[in-house]
Specification:
This protein is mostly helical and about 600 residues long. The protein has 23 helices and 2 strands. About 30% of the residues are buried.
Length: about 600
Amino acid sequence: MTGGSPARAQFLLLLRTHFLLLRRQATATPGRRVVMTLLVGLGTVASLLLGLTALYGFALGRHRTMVPGASLDEAVHLSFALVWLILVLSPALGFRGNEFLDVTRLFHLPVSHRTVLSASTTGISLSGAVLFWLPPLAGVVVGHMVPERNAWRFDWWRLDWPLLGLRLLLVAAFLFQAVLLGQLLVLLLLNFLRSRRFQELGMVLAPLVAGALYLGAWFALTQGRAQRGAGRGLLREVLASEPSRWFPFLPSRWLSEALVEAGRGGLAHWLPFLLGFVPLTLMALAFAAHLQERAFLGDVPPLEAGRGGSGRRVPGGALLRRFFPDEVLAVASKELRLLRREPIVKTTLISQACFLLLPVVALTLGPRGAGDSVGTVVPYAWVLPFVLVFVENTLTMNLLGLEGQGISHLRTTPVSWRSIVAGKDLCYLLGFGTVNAVLCAAVLGLLAVARPDKVPDPLRAVALAVVGGTCALAVVTAVGNVLSVAMPVTLTVRGRMALRQQGAFSEGCYEKLARIAVFAGTLVLVAPVAGVLHVLPAYAHGVFQEAWWPPVGAVLSVLYAGALLRASLPLAERMAREGEEAIVHRLVRAGE
């Protein structure tokens, strides 16, 4: 047997292991088998349709719409840059969902690190994330060069087949380098990808990216409608501005430059490919092999444990100590540390920020004057703090959700249920109350700048928003005190911090209906706050129009919310004492 035969056999074995792992994940259960079959089928159809769309889009752009050649070249650069970013980042983003990406799991096998690198790179190259982009990229290449015969028909016989083959080889080199750089990124961030911080980062980035895409789509649609009426096109203006020149350092630009200029003569446009793309690919291959060898030999440091300590205390603890006992402040401090640690809190705050940016973006892009349909809703901006409060009800109406299995340890301390609930109330009122006040003040300030005639008194609007939002938060928290001990649902799962939402718990129909009824009842309890502060001054007459009514309404709202919160504490304490065993059992069992 030759020296290369064992390595080849090991390579094929690892490659077979890769596909076996994929098959095992896809066919673990009958339901997953059906879902994966649908995903593969729909993905194949979508890839082919995307390829045909790219082919006809580029071809018709060249022959029918009279798009300048420079704009079509720019479309090629942007297409390859987008695919390059997706292919480089997708292995890192899908690290925890694909066992084959963690190469350290293969090091216990009697296989060299070079074979592991070759097998992992080849396995990723044959994955759906790469194969999905083959038809679209081929469609871009063919559509960019196919000659036209007549309407919707092309002259394939006059197509330069050798040039097409050269460009498809460049596409293959592009895919290989993107996969290789993705593997290099995984090896560079190996410990980080295996840590809990990466999970938390994903939880935070997901709503941030979704919000950015939503606002970007809103901007594109708004600008597109305005420019369509003016006889222009947003896409044409974007391509004419040549945004790819802002990132000439991307390897995708080096290759797409050579791909576009292939067949036009001259070697100047091949220099970035020959002097940049090819050497970078070779250096990435060598560096990835070096990192793989370091990991194989055990030079990669182990995962570090999280930093200990009790965390920050509640802000203003010296002042609050005059009004609250030490055990309440201790529970509030512990809950504040949980809120700072759990990514679900960051997800909620980012979602709120993106939600509040929408009216500001709409007012900035919308027309003024008689056609200002968006500006007519600005006087109803007082609804924003109440909406924020109900967005946060995942936490405020489930105060024990972040405890999980830690509830067993909490009950070993000499802290009463009343102090536990009061400490959590204090933490949420200070935390979310401050955040809501800052967000509402920022949005109302921006609205006053965008439409000053719609917000004549910004300071009064901010003051009423802060008072109304805080009182509404206190009312929702009062309902949450009772609901949290009656139907607690854990939000933490072992190994996946705050990934399980309330809906994932296997609760029966009775509890689902009960939660809907409680939510409706909470709306009714919050309504008096909105009515006293906003509805009566806007629609009623008499004393509600006097200058002294807003302070009186604020005092009445504070007294009303404080009374509800005060009345909920003894009720929640009594219910918790009577059902303590069931609460602990439910939270501990759900976190296993």
